[in-house]
Amino acid sequence: MIFLRRAAAAAGIALALAAGGCTGGENAVVAAGAVDEVGAVAMDAALHAKLPEAVRTRGFVRLVTDASYAPMEYFAADGRTIIGFEPDLAAALGQVLGVRVEMVVGVFNTALDEVSAGTYDGVLSSMTDTEDRRDKADFVNYFSTGTSILVQRGNPKGIAGLDDLCGHAVATEKGTYQETMLVQAAKKCGTAPLRIISLPTNADALVELRLGRVVAALQDYPPASYLASDERTSAFFQLASNEQYEPGLFGIAVDRRNAALRDCLRDALQRLIDSGTYGDLLARWELTASGVTKATVNGI
Amino acid sequence: MWLRRARPRVRSTSRLFATFAAASLVPVVTLGALVVQDYRRDAAEQGRAQGLAQADVIAQMVVAPALNSGEPHTLGGDLSRRGLTAEQYDRMRESTGLAVYRGSVQHLRLRGFTGRVIFADDGSTSNGVPASDPDFQAAVQGHPRAKVITGRTQTIRVVQPLFAGATGQSVGVLEVYLPYQPIADRLDHQVTQTVRRIGGGLAVLYLVLALLAWWTTRSLRRYAADQRHSALHDALTGLPNRLAFRTWADDVLERARRDGAPGAVVLVDLNRFKEVNDTLGHHAGDELLREVSERFRAGLGPHDILSRLGGDEFALMLPGRTGPETVALLEEVRDRLAAEMVLDGVPLSIEASFGIALYPEHGVSLQELKQHADVAMYQGKRGTADIVVYSGDGISHSQQWLVVQAELRHALERDELVLHYQPKVGLPDGEVTALEALVRWQHPERGLLPPGDFLPAAEHSGLIVPLTEWVLRRALTDRLGWTAAGQSWAVSVNVSVRNLEVAGFPDLVAELLAGTGTPADRLVLEVTETALAGDVDTVERVLARVAALGVGLSVDDFGAGFTSLSHLRGQPVAEIKIDRKFVADVAHDPQSRAIVRSVIELAHALGSRATAEGVETAEVYRWLIEAGCDEAQGYLIGRPVPWPQVDPAMFAVPGAVSEEVSATMIEGLPR
């Protein structure tokens, strides 16, 4: 069966090439990035061909992630499987590209360095695309959101905005854009200093907030909203306000020197956006509001 | 008798109770077993759950903090790849040491997903649950498993995924051995206690069920016994009824047939019971029956069966008694019955007729014996003896009677009966005064039958009533015939006591007289003497009404029956017919002569005619004339013939007589 399907796909491609780019034939294969008759995302042979030689030879791409950011990426009940929107997106990208895209657990703070060192091919860990980070990597933008302030249920300290955090301890994950935001905010506090507790994972930050050692935790809107509404956690957490601060783009960080992979990922993402598969995956995780309409690199 | 019957009932009820008890034991025991089994399973499950919870606490409070102390880069991935840092290892030793030492935890190991031992409380790296163990594999897949292991002591082994940090990532497998003995002991204690309680409860429940079953079966048994008793006993006297008598008597006869033992079946009928009922009321009648039953019972042995068949009719089954013994016993019973009793202030003496049939000589079946006893009893009622043993010659009667009765019914319908007439002549002139109608049966097979062949059978059934009616009607019609022929003879018709017990009889006579235009004085009804001894009141009333019509009454067979002279008093008797027994003997027996002469005088004194029956010789005829008898009847004068053959000529004593006759004449006539 697999052999037959592959043969058919190859024949389709050959036909498309022979027709000189003429598309829309009755017997055309499923467009790349869309799901075929058995629900599998169709591969784009041209993109596959553009992948770096090493990737094509290996057959897989390794993306590092910190799986403590539901519903973006987090551990299933077995403690080993990573699930969430990003693993689904990674798999879909892999199918379009014709390679396996693996999610590997790592530490967020050092993730970019690992990519620069060549340990991983990229970072897919709800990483905000910032100017600073572009020094180390290019970002294939796939998501758009802002930052929320998460507080204990009942908001005991009456936190309404970033300014209210002065004089309190606030937790966040080390190396995140939110940490940077807190550093900026702390500068404005004056006599009542803002104490920033930076922790290895977002989960550790939540432990601090749950135990009342900090008044708030800063994180992106999707996971914050998830925590405030999920039945297992909504009893402990709520959003300080519905405001999203400093909205920006998430991006798959790829080493600056690896333009081929970067472009392939962007094109593959564009295929998924065009075919509707991307929108479907967003909907599955109730993240439709944060979707992007066009795959970009570094915001362009 | 009673014990023998009681036993099967007891056996069947105890069997019923045993069935109840056994049947209810099954669900009770099953229920108990199921509950206990469930409880044991729940207890074991509870133990495992407790072990899991305990291991979880150890994992989160002891193991995770020890592992979390290090740098961020130590997190994530499989422990079997990275192992522990020295610091993590030390902290693990510190945090678990005391618990192991105190025995709160027997063993604790950290394993990688491949099974490699990363940390063990005893430092060994080769011990532990095999990596291929299903429990270990489940833990690798993220599912905790607990298992109770029974070795020297009971231990619960928990193998669970090790979530080292807040992210929920599993980094390996935690293998903990916890002491289960105290938990097991406590659960055992709980199970034991529960088993005791449930067992006790079920035992009580069973007991209640058994009591209910016992109570129900007892009620059923009593009810059944009551039902049986009332089905087989007479409510009034408490004696066995007809059905019971038949059943038990059949049993007795069956045994008697095997053993050849003798015995008797006795039927008893109280005399004048109806009178008591009518005059003193039913209450007194009931009381009388009760009293009679008591007296009966007192006179009987333990094996004798006394039964009330209905009304004033009783039956006795006397096994093992011969004829004389039976008679002796019954005489004793009769005397007891005859002892005076007072009912509603009226002193009474009860008499009864006993008919005895003996087995095996009079029959072997109850039906047969009862029939014979019945015959004997009726014989007693008609005769003088109140205890009558069946005598063999009645056999033909009783059996044939039924046939005769059936045939006679048809005979009436088919008009097979004929009337013959025997003339009566006046003395001394010899002129025919009346004809006595005598019924004959022109039987299609047996020819012309005399009345003796069928009248007793008719009299024994209700058939005598239509029969008499037929005779009356025919006789009156015939009289019209001879009146038309110029003769003024009266007609005599015999009536049975049964006719006189029918209240409508006088009306019937009146109607027939009117219908045929017969003057009442041309009809004479001949009543047998025994009829006068019957149900006196009714008979007297009927006779008086018949006499009031102007019909002549004649006492038939006077002197042969059983009557006291008092019966004649108050009866409007027109004629007394002297029984043939006395008449035949007047020729040679002085006593008969004295009797006949006296009867003639009696008749005259009562204002009646005296008529001699059975006059067969001229000698007797002449003597009767001399004795002053008014009329004579007999073969000498004329045999019964159809009326046209009656010789209307004046009877003349024949001159030529046989030698025998002349011899008796010489002897019998006064010289």
UniProtKB/TrEMBL annotation, chain A:
Report the Gene3D superfamilies cross-referenced here. Periplasmic binding protein-like II
Taxonomy, superkingdom: Bacteria
Q: Does the keyword Disulfide bond apply?
A: no
What positions does the domain Solute-binding protein family 3/N-terminal occupy?
60-289
List the signal peptide residues. Answer: 1-24
Q: Does the keyword Iron-sulfur apply?
A: no
The UniProt keywords, alphabetically, are: Signal
- Tell me which PANTHER family the record gives: ARGININE-BINDING EXTRACELLULAR PROTEIN ARTP (PTHR35936:SF17), MEMBRANE-BOUND LYTIC MUREIN TRANSGLYCOSYLASE F (PTHR35936)
| Name listed for the protein in its UniProt record | Amino acid ABC transporter substrate-binding protein (PAAT family)
Query: What is the native source organism of this protein?
Result: Actinoplanes xinjiangensis
From TrEMBL, chain B:
Report whether Membrane shows up as a keyword of the record.
Answer: yes
Pfam families named in the record: EAL (PF00563), GGDEF (PF00990)
Boundaries of every GGDEF domain copy: 261-392
Q: Which NCBIfam families match?
A: GGDEF (TIGR00254)
Q: Domain of life of the organism in this record?
A: Bacteria
UniProt organism field = Actinoplanes xinjiangensis
What keywords does the record list, in alphabetical order?
Answer: Membrane, Transmembrane, Transmembrane helix
Domain EAL span(s) in chain numbering? 401-654
Protein name per UniProt: Diguanylate cyclase (GGDEF)-like protein
Which residues are listed as membrane-spanning?
198-215
Q: Does the keyword Transferase apply?
A: no
